[in-house]
Structures
1.
Amino acid sequence: MTDKKKLIAPRLPRGFEDRLPADISAVNAMTAKIRAVYERYGFDSVETPLLEYTETLGKFLPDTDRPNAGVFSLQDEDEQWMSLRYDLTAPLARHFAENFDKLAKPYRSYRAGYVFRNEKPGPGRFRQFMQFDADTVGAAGAEADAEMCMMMADTMDALGLAGKYVVKVNNRKVLDGVLASAGVVDEGQKLAVLRAIDKLDKFGTEGVALLLGEGRKDESGDFTKGAGLSDEQRAVVLNYVRGEEPEHNEGIAELNAMQALFDAAGYGADRIKIDPAVVRGLEYYTGPVFEIELTFKVQNEKGQDVVFGAVGGGGRYDGLVSRFRSEPVPATGFSIGVSRLAHALRLTGNLGAEEPLGPVVVLVLDKEQTARYQAITSRLRRAGIRAEMFMGNTKNFGKQVAYADKRNSPAVIIEGTQERELGKVQIKDLIAGKEAAKAIADNAEYKAARPGQFECDGDLDAIVAAISELPAVSAYLDANK
């Protein structure tokens, strides 16, 4: 008795996903619009590798004592640790520092690509996801920060989200000043206070007050431990949350300078506004911070109406490049979460998720005529039309047409013995056929009517001309000129 071959189960790793043609096409269209805005602002593209030396990512990893905590890491042949990039900003800092003498300064660039997090996956939380960043390195003024916010707003407009977003702006120097005024010096307590402020939109002032104190219990009974501030400390933070402006704060001056630029450029508070609740999580931010919040409501898993929330953000990070160079290097930038933004665009009907148009399929009805079918296919391709010759089991005509249907093909070309003798081909417009089929209930009637099918001269140029006139193919050709 022979042992059966042990088959490997085809399993997708948790936290990763396969992307299908419709999703890829839709996201490509979305990122093309984003890229157009960035380039209009004078930013150029750059691409950094997926792997960086772990020390390059540095203290911004969750735990540098364990190189594989939070990131996916491996050792090369020299036993140096390398990690899949955690974001697109740290690699940019390395690129800028390594090419410092070659690059124009300020250095204005954008990047799109996958980043990786070695974290527990969950609903909507992936270990691999795409970001789209833009950064200005080497400009210290409020002008660079304000420009980032304006570019974020223009990007949302270009994606059809006008009136459905707001860019919120704050400054970490303001927050640091408030913490100092409240006498909060413990790093863990500082983080707890910032997390509480970040919940202002969600829980209101009363909820923030609870999180600044002992803690807050939600409707389900779950308890979140608070920052443990005294009543006096809480009063200082709550005054800030309620809109009281801290005195003699450098961050306030920077925000005022940015606001003057927003006003001069015509960006009202409905598009960009100063908001004391904006915190941003990464510790490398040193000045202005900002995020894009989508303001329309969606239903959560409990069926409750909630605001969609943030799809991107960023800020000033003047210390990041300075890890590589002795002189200070100012920098500011932002990152868009591509997958989350794509989901938002689907909800608003601004992301086409239709299957991309497939190839015209040349059916193979006579194996001895393969060269002829290849000639037709090649002529279509030279005319810029997606086309392929069927290469599966050619014995069944119906299965060939079914294959074309599954590929979202606009048409099939049929040339059997009878058509060849007459110097003709049959073209079956699959899209028109599907539409006509909706009005024909009887299968026999459908077969007799052969909706969408017509005869064409067998000359190669005539075939190309007939296929090019099909509405779906004509639209494809126009879009790809």
Note: Residues 375 and 460 are 8 Å apart (CA to CA).
2.
Amino acid sequence: MSETICDLTNRSCKPCEGGTPPLTRAQAGEMMQQLDDGWVLAEDASYIEREFKFKGFAKAVYTTNLACFLADQQGHHPDIRMGWGYCNVRFSTHAVNGLSENDFICAAKLDAMVKTQDG
């Protein structure tokens, strides 16, 4: 599993073009195996989501900032909700109305960044 995650973390997002179909539920399910267990695949396979939990506000802010930095770096922007003790990150690809490989690349990169932050 770690080799595959490494593969995703070493890749970069590609610009999405119209007319590209979203990943099927089966394809998304296969890609989920490459992510941390904290990620959840939506029932309709339209997004992946992870809630990071903390014992305070600061780490939630730091994780939100990591997700924002990653989004800016990759040109692929998640929906983020945060508050005291949590940061919720949801990836989907609006251009395809569902999931693309970019979502999984960003999720794997975010996982790696959070693990580095945790020490």
Note: Residues 2-9+23-118 form a domain with the Gyrase A; domain 2 fold (CATH 3.30.1360.20).
3.
Amino acid sequence: MVKRTKLSAVFQARCPQCREGKLFISKAYNLRKFLLMKKVCDTCGARFEKEPRFYDGSMYISYAMSVGLFLMSALVINYTIENANENTYLIAIISEVILLYPLMYRYSRVLFLYSFGGLKYTPKQNN
């Protein structure tokens, strides 16, 4: 049993209650299954979906992540490429969205579950 901090559990997409069980069924870039999330934790039995459509609120977190990504990209392009036109911005932002969508989807759900899921870390559940 590895003792994880809350930050490492979030980055590894682990259960908020035991910090051991995985939240997702497959890897992030398995394009057929990256959307599939487990219903309960394999280790402690915590339910990840509190009610139907529980994760609809994670769209707001995903939106904030996307806006931050777009702003950072625009700033980097603005300060590194002289006389960049609109196509440069569009190509950069669209390619980033395509490449990072699976990660943004997953981490918006992980952050939403940790924030609003009502699951508290209880290390004694691991025994």
Note: Residues 6-122 form one domain.
4.
Amino acid sequence: MHCRKRWPLALLLMIGITACSSLPTRPAPAIEIDLPRFMGTWYVIAHVPYWLEEGKLTARDVYRLREDGRIDNDYVFKRRWDGPEHRWQGVSTVQPGSGGAHWQVQFVWPFKSDLHVLEVSADYQWALLSNPRRDLAWVFHRQAEVDEAELQDWLTRLSAYGVDPTELRRVEQVPSS
């Protein structure tokens, strides 16, 4: 029964991610990602969300490198502060020759979507990601809270990659006081 409830939602998730767009695609940046260092928990600080991400709280991605070279990709979130935590489980495949910067993400077979790691800090504390059309984007950080000056710097950086910074929305990680 539990799997039956998740299937329609996961299908809608993938349709939303792979929906057609008139924006041109752009190649993954020519950077090298140290995949073992990239693994772990990343808090979604801000994003240009697709419709299934709208309104999610405490959103984070958890990555685990598998023995076969693929990546277990869990998206964890709440819908309300006093509600339960939800987890969508997917698998990502790093595309050969991309230096670890181009992933294909799959939450529901047979649907896949492309993800580019645009930039990651030298200490692997923050990362900027987008889809190839640059109409979806994510700001990741190892900590749930960051200051506004850092966020503004990341918005400027994303703009240089072709992401519209006015479309980015902050993700609430802790309740407002």
Note: The helical segments are 2-17, 35-38, 148-160.
